[in-house]
Structure formats: C-alpha cells, structure tokens
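ok so I'm stuck.
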Amino acid sequence: MRKPDSVAALADFGRVRLSKSFFMRDFLFSDIAAVHGLSNVPDDPDLAIAAGTRLCEELLEPLQDRFGRIAVRSAFRSCEVNGLGNEMQAAGKSGYNCASNEANFGGHIWDRRDAKGRMGATACVVIPAFWDAFQAEGDWRKLAWWIHDHLPYSSLYFFPKFWAVNIAWCEEPERRIDSYTYPKGCLTKVGMPNNSGSHEQDWAGIEGAMVRGLA
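replied:
not stuck anymore, here's the structure
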C-alpha cells in the first residue's frame, strides 16, 4: 500500500480494520500533529498495519474483553511528528514527552523496525473502569501484574494520570514493566526473581470488582 497522500486515500487507510474492535483511524490522532499542522501517517502503511494488528489482537482486544472499553491516548506517530516532539522536549517544552525516533522505532513509530530488526507497536491507553475501581497509591500494579500473567506484552510503562500505560507488542517480547508513578522505576524485568511464576496474589479480585462496577 502506498503512503496516503489524499483525503480519499487517508480515509481508506483509516478504515483498515486491525481487529474486531479497532480500526487504523483509532490510532492516528496526535496532539502534536494537530497543534503543529503535521501529517501523522506512516511512510510504510503495510508495516504499520501488520504491527498494529498484532498489538490490537494480542493485547488490546483481550484487555477490552476483560475490563471494558479502552481509551487510546497516544499511539502511532510518524517520524516527523515524533521527531518534533523529541526536539520540543529537549528544549524544555511541556507536554511533548517523546523519546528519540531511534528509541521509538518499533514502538510509537509502527512503520519502522527497531535496531534489532524487530517489528513492534506501542499505544498509550487508559482503562476507565480500572481507574474508577482502583485509585489508591500503587494500585496500578494490580493491572500490571494481571497483564504480566495473562498477555504476551513486551513492555509496560505506567503514568500517574488515570493509570495510563504505554503497552507495547514486539516480535521478541522483553517482558519489562516500569512506572513514572509510585513506586517509580522498574517493577520487573527478565532476570529479576519476580519476573516468572504466578502473581495472582497481586491481582486477585480485580476482575470481580470491575465486573460489578461495569454491571
């Protein structure tokens, strides 16, 4: 597929269905692109579709099936959009929070493989029902451990507001969880004693509590 270069082509691209609930258009909005008048579309649409499909089918759909509607905060970024975001962050501008393009290949930049040649995709999402049920300090860990025990994620990065999380799919999962909220830092990664085995004691009860809240 060619890079969309017209309204009609972009509309058709946005209609590409990545999974039972998600379409490509769900992942194309960017605050940076909207404010700065940039085009947030992939140079390699086929690679973006392939990576986004795996992200949706293997991670986002199971989360939504279990915990209710997922709200997408930030997902695909073109190299142009992410590059500007990184420049603005380096200049001390607030609200941009973008790593370098190279660091985001196979992450928020779905249409580039990472330095190891791996396909991947990242979306920053909020699960409103989880936030409504669990707002105590550190409660994000309940969701983190549930995902760790149930889904083939590569990395998770949690944020304070609504327990938003960067959830990443990768061809070779790293199985690492980090957080910008308390307790900050690395919760688990390969090589740490807590990376293997069941963590049911850390997430037990969240499914029932959320089902009651969604009823």
